[in-house]
Amino acid sequence: MSRDRDSTDHRTGADDAREADLLRLRRLSQAALPPEPEEAAWHAVLARVHASIEGQTGPRRSPRPLWGIVGLTAAAGILAAILARSLWTTSGPLPTPAPRAEEPLPVVEAGDVTIVSMDARDVAALVVGELPVAGELVFARPEDIRVIRCERCPHSGRLARLEPGEEVPMFVSAANVESPDGEPDN
Question: What is the pTM of this model?
Fold first, then answer.
């Protein structure tokens, strides 16, 4: 809610004293105003302004040459400090580095690596080790295989059999499949 300063029911004695001080200050400032200069004084000031403008005959100089000189001086100082650096250092012998106790990155030898399987496209990346099969891989032909003895597995009781194929002979063992009743089906 706003207060109306001019209403008499809200005014206090402090407000009256403040208003009296402002009126007295206004009268003092109006009494102390300097006199207005005469017309001749204004013409004299204007003439001096025109004279100073006409006195500038040459074009104004650009600060670029000054900045160029400052930049070249700074570059020369930096170059001198770099070249004089050798004078500031001591001229004693340089310390020899301590011998290393072991190689920083020991590498395994070919005999330490056994490659079990590898993609044929990665052979070019092989650095250490021998390929599992060097050269061409030749499969056994059916006439190269002779079954000497075949026994049942002691755990599952399944019997492996040799099925000759046209390309590669396969050893096949029957899988233990559960019937819908939940009993194993052989």
Answer: 0.21
